[in-house]
Predict the 3D structure of the following.
Amino acid sequence: MVSSYLLFFVGAVLCAAAAAWVLRAYRRADGGATVRAAPAFIACGFVIGAALATYLVIGSPSLPGAPFAARLAALKHRDPTSFTADEALAILSQAARDNPGDPRPLFYSGQVLLDSGRAEDAARVFDAALRRDPSNAEAMLGMGRAMVRIDEGRVSPEALALFERAGAASDDPVPWVYQAMAAMQEDRAADAQRLWGQAYARMAPDDPRRAMAQRMSIGAGE
């Protein structure tokens, strides 16, 4: 099976050759030759279009080895826990296309991207999920977390607003942790203790963050 990377290389060579044809025509014009650029430009467009069409048949660089449709179908029969990040994103992208009004494939794509260190891409996908369901607390939380990653740990006012909305709509302790972090960054010690207490109250007994949240709620972290 032809590698999609090889396809890109061949397509680049063909496009370069077509562009060289155009350039040659213009150079010959200096010697008095009649320039007929239109056929050359049409050739360029044909080569690019053919390369794109072939790419769509061959597949995606992130899933090498077989036609994309066949690979996608094969993935659906595998254990999802065995997926690479690119494979998971391919499945979720197809689900988002099949169900354009459903925010869940976009939310899960955002989680995969965030876990892969691609915070800016994650933020765009979480934003798309929120456009489909503005009240989705998980997407709010994901968007806020992506914004904090982009800002290198700073909880901006925009991110804080998302955490406040997510905290009001769910029992997840994470929005309260981020609200407490924002209070600490702004030197609001009393607010930080109260918010750590709210986070602590929502944590499961086996939550590894529980002891730290308890200490912070009584000011032991100062």
Notes: Residues 4-29 form the longest helix (26 residues). Residues 1-11, 51-62 have pLDDT under 50 and may be disordered.
